[in-house]
Amino acid sequence: MQEGVPTDSVALEAIEKLGPREKWRIVKNIAVLGIAFMIHFTAFHGTSNLQSSLHNDGSLGAYTLACIYGSLILSNLFLPVLVIGLLGCKWTIVVSFVAYMPYIAAQFYPSFATLIPSGLAVGFGGGPLWCAKCTYLSIIAEAFSIATRRKVRTDYLIVKFFSLFFVFYQLAQVLGNLISFTVLSYGETESAVNGTLESSVNISITCGANYAAPIHQEAQSAIDLKRPEPEQLNRLTGIFLACMVAASVSVALGVDSLKRYNMVRKAPDNRASGMSTLVITLRHLGHKYQLLLIPITAFIGIEQAFITADFTKVSFVACGLGISYIGYAMISFGLANAVAAACTPYITKHLGRRLLILVTCLFHAALIVFMLLWTPTNEYYKYSIIVACWGLADGVWLIQINSLSGVLFPGNEEAAFSNFRLWEACGSVIMYSASSFFPTFHKLLFVLVVMIVGTVGYGAIELMEHRAKRLDSGKRFEAVDQEPHES
């Protein structure tokens, strides 16, 4: 038995003291948490998807996003265990939500002096936020498993709970971009709405994989013709700021503290603080599985940053359709993400995780090759189809690799999820920083190579576990290939 984890009988007795409806209360906590994240990231995604196109003078938007994920790296190294130890998971989420608000408010007066510091604040809040969320879901999954007398395995429940959470979370892309498109396209002429404004840029030559940074300045005047009015941008910012306030209040009032489930997994008495947090996070890199997960984790940050900073900017959507259509195209991404989050556990049950990840890798690779060869047009539905396919793949990657960190390292969730966010953020910083310097063609190739390397690393974990299981049929890391049977 791991240190700090009580026996099943003790935990079951403690859970039963809470009442027979405790299972539904756990589900309520997941739902409220998911809805709060959906509202919060409706504002964040809706704003971030516009950054590289709205604030492209001196690449301010891309640099702001790089600052967000750069500070997220430091945040993941130093803050999660410390902040969670001081505030607990629930209040860490609330405080971290508040840290995002200056970034939204800075959109009223965008400049290096406002966007860069507020972007740093987002990153410092992001590390504790995501680690607290992942730890919360993992622990209440164990509580739910105990409450059902282990009729459902904890590792399967972790995947299910992450899936339920991410259905809500991915809907943020839909709502955020729907709000963005509605507000920014209001009052446009019919030609502008249909993405057919006259442009001095030859879309088939300049846009897509053909886009290179030197052409950016030549294309800028045509893109600026479609720039929204300041009044529209301020209205959008006000809506998004109100969303973040509502999300913070929802968690504060509607989510139970994990103190309620201390009987499931008591925290160690000597909580880490200061530099000890860095030591815990880095020490976890000594685990061979954690090292093998680094490439695929970084890939998730890279591919998400590519969609945010490259697909939505001059190289794709803004080039062919205009800035106001960024939100419209990204709605498809959010819908596909939500569908993938909802369906991944059921597909995994039938295909098995190994086969699903292999199929996702092949599907994503084929999509990247298509984007390398595709000739862009001003037909908006084609952009929507491309980004929807990317969203399906991203949803599978996010669910599988995120939940894998919880399954592989029970009892060490904070260190595991801190590493997940750390390396995901490293991938994002690399892509955002390269956004203004390298051709889109090269960046797509880079995404493809990192994905292949990451998939090989994941395969090595499965291979080692398969060999270990042949030697020891006891408690090993179980691939979630099928739904557990009731006892």
Automatic annotation (TrEMBL):
**Which organism encodes this protein?**
Anopheles christyi
Q: Which UniProt key words apply to this protein?
A: Membrane, Transmembrane, Transmembrane helix
- The answer on whether this UniProt entry bears the keyword Membrane reads yes
Q: What is this protein called?
A: UNC93-like protein
Membrane topology, as annotated, equals: Multi-pass membrane protein
Q: Name one GO molecular function term.
A: potassium channel regulator activity
- Residue ranges spanning the membrane: these are 26-43, 63-84, 91-109, 115-136, 157-179, 236-255, 291-309, 315-343, 355-374, 444-461
GO biological process terms held by the UniProt record = regulation of muscle contraction; regulation of potassium ion transport
User: Which Pfam families does this entry report, sorted A to Z?
Assistant: UNC-93 (PF05978)
What cellular component GO annotations does this protein have? plasma membrane; striated muscle dense body
Q: Report the PANTHER family cross-referenced here.
A: PTHR19444:SF50, UNC-93 RELATED
Its family remark reads: Belongs to the unc-93 family.
Subcellular location(s) of the protein? Membrane
Say where the protein is mainly found: membrane
